[in-house]
Amino acid sequence: MTLKEKIERLKRERRAVILAHYYTEGEVQDVADFVGDSLALSQRAATTDAEVILFAGVHFMGETAKILSPQKTVLLPDLAAGCSLADSCRAEDLAAFIDRHPGHTVISYVNTTAEVKALTDIVCTSSNAVQIVESLPPDEPIIFGPDRNLGNYIKNITGRENMLIWDGACHVHEEFSLDKILALKAEHPQAKILAHPECKRPIILVSDYVGSTAGLLKFAVEDTSTETYIVVTEPGVLHQMRRAAPSKRFIPAPPTDSTCGCNNCNYMKLVTLQKMADALERLEPQIVIPEEVRVRAERSIRRMLEISQRLGLV
Ligand code: 13P
Ligand code: SF4
Predict the structure, then answer these.
(1) pLDDT greater than 90 at residue 126
(2) Which of 108-112, 255-259, 296-300 has the lowest mean pLDDT?
(3) What CA–CA distance (Å, rounded) separates 75 from 118?
(4) Whose atoms come closest to the Cα of 36: which ligand?
(5) Is the pLDDT of residue 105 over 80?
(6) Which of 5, 15, 60, 208 is 20 to 30 A from 98 in CA distance terms?
(7) pLDDT of residue 252
(8) What pLDDT, on the 0 to 100 scale, is given for residue 258?
């Protein structure tokens, strides 16, 4: 029996659903029931009727699923699959920052720990951050964290003056090389540059389209102006781009220091078929969250889902 067949069998026996992020390995995405960006995955986690959720992604994603579905067993194939962006904002530091800046509405990116979400008024993802900020009155003082690149991108689009931005970042998106992207563009002048808003501003400025992973995928599939795309985000998303538009050419953008030319998220790549099969067999490792943290974190995620539903974003 192949690993894939074993996962299928265990999935049926455990009455499990497999949710995977676009940044995981292609073979991991291929065994998932649903592959999506952070917003779509949190929506799925909130509505699935499966008894077990196997989350093929990183720790904050498993936590988000557990916060929304506390009665379900949420499995994360490798508990070491963390996130440099979530690590850049510790709950105790955010609590002190909020104390120093009272009267602000706290908006946190979903790439945060449950403890940070518990201190947050509204969670957002890269696909709804603009709309979440714009759902507040124009002069509302806002603390936005932890991604400084996404924060500055949102601030520029919305023109919000009253926005304090946390100084955190994702190591994958910080490492892309503008010079190498421009060299690729010179080699393929017809190519369009697609970038995730976690990228630094100089890269955003040379991009033809900026969006969440789901947004980049949709644009790449629907766009008819060219056949070649330079994709400036974690290269796992190219798997779905190539499947959905096999005649097009997708080139992963390189980081500054790289010989392989790609820029993998080492945390996402910890998820393997073997670990997924083991997790389904043992029903371990599970995500566990103290109930009082979970209840407060759920409020800020539900507010995001309510606003997103009202605006037709999910
Ligand atoms: P999205 O899924 O919102 O595109 O975010 C990407 C990301 O960094 C997930 O870790
Ligand atoms: Fe975190 Fe960046 Fe990896 Fe996404 S790509 S999980 S933000 S480290």
Answers:
(1) yes
(2) 255-259
(3) 21
(4) 1
(5) yes
(6) 60
(7) 96
(8) 60
**The dihedral of CA 142, 143, 148, 149: what is its sign?**
negative
Q: Which atom of ligand 2 is nearest to the CA of 83?
A: 1
Nearest CA to ligand 1 atom 7: 38
Whose atoms come closest to the Cα of 82: which ligand? 2
Cα dist. 104→90, 161, 210, 251, 280 in Å?
18, 13, 28, 41, 43
Cα dihedral: 167, 171, 177, 178 (round 10): -30
Considering every ligand atom, which ligand is closest to the CA of 126?
A: 1
Secondary structure of the chain: what % helix, strand, coil (to 5)?
45, 15, 35
- Ligand 2: residues within 6 Å at CB? 23, 58, 83-85, 111, 170-172, 234, 265, 267-268
Which among 111, 124, 153, 313 is the best mutation to test ligand 1's pocket, defined by most ligand atoms within 8 Å of the CB? Answer: 111
User: Measured on CA atoms in the order 182, 183, 184, 186, is the torsion positive or negative?
Assistant: positive
